[in-house]
Amino acid sequence: MFANHMTFLMLAVSLTVPLLGAMLLLDSPIDPQPLSFKEPPLLLGVLQPNTKLQQAEKLFENQLIGPESIANIGAHVPVPQAPMVLSLHVMFTGTADGRIVKLENGEIETIARFGSGPCKTRDDEPACGRPLGIRAGPNGTLFVADAYKGLFEVNPWKREVKLLISSETPIEGRKMSFVNDLTITQDGRKIYFTDSSSKWQRRDYLLLVMEGTDDGRSGQRTTRGLRLLLAPHSLLEYDTETKEVKVLLDQLRFPNGVQLSPAEDFVLVAETTMARIRRFYLSGLMKGGADLFVENLPGFPDNIRPSSSGGYWVGMATIRSNPGFSMLDFLSERPYIKRMIFKVTMKTIIPKTKMKMHLIRIFFDLCSCKNSRAAYNI
């Protein structure tokens, strides 16, 4: 019995000492700040989990790698940039291997690439590019936010690509590292988009989520004739005529999806790390001001898109279980645990973590939630 106890003790010591040594000697890649959340809303009533999304028809299954945002151009309408009258339901999306593809009549066609090289692993993303937000403009062209390359306009009919803003443009010595989503006015003049971080790239999104900082800064520079006013962790506005870029909101924690209101009097931005959506007013008495559109969401929001009911569909990266246990809520007030986790597991957790937020969605209609059913796939 004594020998067994000694063996157990020696085993415990042999495991604990290296672990403590690693905690003391290794640097943490993140410097997380404590965050405070309200108790997550109960997943009852309209928030009751269900399996509706599992019943959805799967299109192009196993043919597309990581499709993100989707743009749909018209239905049997003439498009100035198109060679003929547009057929019904032509869809476009960006994929994890750096392509913009057209989806029509069951066929997949590559229409553009912003990068080059082999596009097989997470480490290939900076060279290959990673198209994220994509929207259809008023003239039949596409506007695309690439996480690594910047903002582009793509003519899908002529296969022409035009760079609007490059992520390589240094702003106060720092580049945009994580261009994310965008939304465009009906006349195509102004684009509102998010720069999720000036520190972390998309391939390091988990570090961005765990760090949870809002180290935004703003400044004004003139580069190559462009008047630039940028900040990391920001909601920005780009004028396609004047080429001017302005910061609307900064010091955001993981700004993600964006969506203009139908009247274009405000723009919404998902603040993923904080489980909330901010609103910036573009006109009216509140012009230039901002407030909380909705907070304490039942999950951490990603993209925002309009719904036919007048509200908005919001894709959730993950839910905040209540009743149940939410790991991100638990860790939010314990930055020391985050540091310890990434000190010990940094080299193993990041490469093996796959971004699944675009495959599993939680939809929540913000403006009509009392009269609608939230669709959950858990």
UniProtKB/TrEMBL annotation:
Membrane topology: Single-pass membrane protein
Taxonomic superkingdom: Eukaryota
Signal sequence annotation: 1-22
Compartment(s) where it occurs, according to its Swiss-Prot or TrEMBL record: Membrane
GO CC annotation terms, alphabetical: endomembrane system; membrane
Any one Gene Ontology molecular-function term assigned to this protein's record: arylesterase activity
Keywords for the protein's UniProt record, in alphabetical order: Glycoprotein, Membrane, Signal, Transmembrane, Transmembrane helix
Protein name, UniProt field: Adipocyte plasma membrane-associated protein
Organism: Ursus americanus
UniProt gene name: APMAP
